[in-house]
Amino acid sequence: NPNWFHYPGLHFYELGAVFVLGKALGMIQLVADEQFYIQNSEQGAMLYRLGRQLSWFYGLLTIALLGLWGWLLGRPWAGLWGAAFLAALPLHMVHSDYLTVDVESAFWATLALVLLSVYCCGSASGGWRYWGIFGALGVATAVKYPALLIMIAVLFGLWRKGELRHLWWPFTRRLLLGYA
Question: What is the pTM of this model?
Fold first, then answer.
């Protein structure tokens, strides 16, 4: 329990997993006493560095996901240009360098939109499409609440595909299960 609920807790739990991995690799010492980190500032700095590397990892995945998105839609140059633009975007570089929830939330929201566009363009079938779209959107929301606004695009895309008119209850059920 992080005892801080300005953002949802998934990012904190991921950081905990990264810290445990860092301890298992011998990179850091995990101690419950705050005085230890005051007296050994290099250990506190290493915790922060590991968290920043997690943000960097999600930033890199988001860039790769944009390239993949263009390729999946049959426009590899658009994906390449989008990935290059995001890689050179100063705000993305700055946030990927800091220990923030924004980059991770952007990755999961982008994944939901990629899965939605692949489905709406007709290259996806089967029941996984709802689980993938709403699962990624649920994870994005579990990292940062405003990612829920992507739901507007998802609902519009499914409405345009005709899913909402014929499958309202199964859609609602999958929506709720995807967020669970």
Answer: 0.78
